[in-house]
Design brief:
The protein is mainly alpha-helical. The chain folds into 2 domains: 149 residues, no CATH class; 41 residues, no CATH class. A two-stranded antiparallel ribbon has the order 1-2. The termini are far apart.
Length: 253
Amino acid sequence: MIVVLVVAIVRDSTLGAALASSKDLVAPTVAATGVLIAVLAFARDKGKIERDRADARSRIMYEQCKQGLESAHNLLKDRNNDRITWIRAARLILNVKHLTQSITTEEYRLAYELAEDDVRARLYEVLSQKTDGPERPALPPAFFFGVKDWETTKYTLDQLAIATSGGVHVQAVSDNHNVREPVSLNLEVNSVKVIMGFLDYPIEYVDRLDQAQWKDLSGWSDSSGPKQGAYRYLNHKKRKYTLNGILFDREPA
């Protein structure tokens, strides 16, 4: 009887110690799990805050850049060759190019590319000559020399340079008359480089139109629907080409 009682006491003591030990381990484990969850939640919230901040900053920069391009276009849309106006427009374009570095989110970068393409196309129409045909001849040098009759003048480049040259004027100074400032008619060279260079697409420009795969006409019909005329045109382009008024067959792909 005494032996059984001792065994029971030892067994109960061992079980009690195990339970106590397990309770001691549960509290730190629960605490560590809670800390981990809190850290993960903080990291998630911090990441979201940073993304929201970058998105808001990109939106503001995009709107400023778009407005800057529109302002540059508004300055030039009447096809003027005013020196001061061209300087202002060139500075706007340069400032826009600098601000675009702060557009970091992909959506607003794409939106800016669309806005830039739109303004580039409209400026191209302004800074080229319209004809009755599809051609858009370039503006002549006389335009950039700043002469007002640039469309009709027959001057050579040297004659244009002489006709638009500035000079030093000597005059008396009085207390009730302002001194006349020298005027340069020629467009400022850096402004010409910036504005006319803006008409070119950037080297890194990705033209998504190149991905259209126009030769794949599967599903198109040549005898029904609104695409039938377009189908015949594209299909003919696939098979034929012309050069100097002569029709040639294309080599099979």
